[in-house]
Amino acid sequence: MININILKPTSANFQNYLYIGSGLILISIFDVFLRSFFNINFSNSLPGILNFFLPLIIGLVGLQMIRLEYSGNRIVDKINQSVNNNIFNAGLTLLIIFLTLLIIPPASNWMIFEATISGDTKEACAVTEGACWTYIKVWFRRFMYGMYPNDFHWRINTAFIALIGFAFVGYFMRGKLKNYITFYYAIFYPIIAFIIINFLISGGSFGLEWVETNAWGGLSLTFIVSFFGLIFCFPLGMILALGRRSELPIIKYISIGYIEFWRGVPLITVLFMSSVMFPMFLPSDAFVDKLIRVIAAIILFEAAYVAEVIRGGLQALPRGQYDAAKSLGMGYWRMQIFVILPQALKLVIPGIANTFLALVKDTPLIFVVGLSEVVGMLQMAKTNPKWLGFAMEGYIFASILFWAICYAMSKYSQYLELKYKTER
Amino acid sequence: MNHRIKNIIPQLLTLLFVVAVIGFFTINAQLNMDERGIDFGYGFLSQESSFDVQFSLIEYDGSHSYAKAYLVGLLNTILVSVLGIIFCTIIGVIVGIARLSPNYLIRNTAAWYVEFFRNVPLLLQIFFWYYAALRALPLPENTEPLFGVTYLTVKGYYIPRFIWENFDILVYSILAAIISIVFIRNYARKLQEEKGQQTPVLLISVGLLLIFPAITFVTGMVQLEVALPVLKQLSKTSFIYAEGLSIPPELLALVLALSLYTATFVAECVRAGVQGVSKGQKEAAASIGLTPNQILKLVIMPQALRIIIPPTTNQYLNLTKNSSLAAAIAYPDLVLVFAGTALMQTGRAIEIVSITMLTYLTLSLAISLLMNWYNKKIAIKEK
After folding, report:
1. Model-level pTM?
2. I need a labelling partner for A46 at 20 to 30 A (CA). Which of A6, A70, A240, B90 fits?
């Protein structure tokens, strides 16, 4: 311990220790920087392991030398508190800094400096070692719209713009109309959405050519599936949650059975069921489109999860709320709609957001029934003989896409949570 | 009277609805099967399967029955789930604690890891590891050894294989050690409670666990040989490592993706659990003179575990169910072997899909029952 105590500063000699220590830290970082950016290694002459760990050792000594409680220097105090409070943390700090320095040059080289985006053939990418964003550029429309005919992409765009437009109608409802806002979103909006998608994207009437659902794909399919999933699984989940909390035994046990069954099986088997088993359950002349079957399966599946989340909210409400509503003479539905559900739903916003996020992240699974959204299209593009060997670029592109969507959704849910937070 | 009717009518309607839906489906299924000349039944399970499975934990080939194929798939699913659960717990606990670290850099690195990996679909991550990351590995003949004796190649991960002789005796010896440790622990607790005497239980336990198997080795009842992977030429350009144990890349990709993805959720559970123990508990423990290690072991962890375990169980269940994504990269799990290949061959959609779903349901219910039991055991016993 005596050896280490030599490196320990006291308030008397701190100034000197600070100069030497920060010098050592800078040297260690500079050494790694040179090794990774310019491939220069000063300590080549030292034996292998010592050479490898030299920056870490120098850095640790440096950090040890500036570690002093209440040094009087605000910046040093801040550093000591946040990244340098003991030798273990100091080591981890250095490791993280070094790893970042080591990763940045190859990663940025591959992704930016040596990447190609010009041209529209594979040959354009053969010139450099870097990423081939040309591949993404060429396939971009496919990733967005699937095999939907190129000339009709405006139909998908218009449909989505219309859907967003109708979604914002609620913001402009003022005065008396405002009372019908829930009614609008719960019943009217799904119908409008279905009509828009049916006539605009599917087509077949008004002079629009019919496009079968097999051709749908890409990100637009992700949106369609998750959109219908979201708007339908919520009311169904609410009913199931109320059913599970009901005092009527038959309703209660049917709800429990339903919820536990769907929560116990993986989505992929549910989709299998919807594609291979469900047609057996229908009259032989009946035909239900594959996409509708898939969306129905996803709704039934996610509703069970939504139900459990909402049940958590219902259970968290104090009994007094129920008693108060009953003592005012409210019936069951009146009590649920005006007193219980508004408070319960507010409590479970994060949980519901998580379920919806899970729904969006589950949409790629529809590949098992032969529908291909973004990930499915990636698989298709990857095996295209003209574009072999760019799997990495595709996956990075899709990851960033999904990450952005999910991150935005989770941030929005946090905003909602704050907005509807009421002190109890 | 009025009240009773009010209660009965909705129940009757619901029951009627459920019965009608089920009845409609059953009648249709009956009609459809009659039309196609299929008769419902599980007899096909004993027929010869006549398809091969690439990776199997038990002896299996095409001459075995469909029931055996089912077992192969089930064991593969369980293998992936168990490996995934082990790794996601390790990573999740480390990341969860790192998110509470006083170190700014560590805290934020952990936060970024969580934010990134949980917001990217699992299927995409599996594809990334399988088709992009593991495909970038070198061919067997160009591979440098990892840790001296293992080889990470594009064809899989080759590790030494342990060849045991009389492995069962070793297992019995370990069991005997565990049983004696339980007795010693109980005796030590009794001593502690009655006379205040302390016994070095941990030291004795570790000693027993080492000594019992060691005796079996020394007496020569159990023998161990290690078969190292050796490069072997199959044809002019094709090499593999023979002798050792080979872990297929599908399994690697699946375990990597599943554990990295689920670890983010486990990390959040761990963080919530540790944060959920109030600061007063720690201060109270410190004020009665417990050491920091004792505080962690006796005060913080028992309380944090109560908060951590229920949501973590859910994550384990999710991982088990998510392991069915294996079908996407052709890892022969239950879904691929049974609901895929076997279904294609026999065309018995209803039987096979229902068996598959029931299997997952049973697995889920079993894990959740086990965890509920454990949860009840460690729950606060209020007096």
Report:
1. 0.85
2. A6
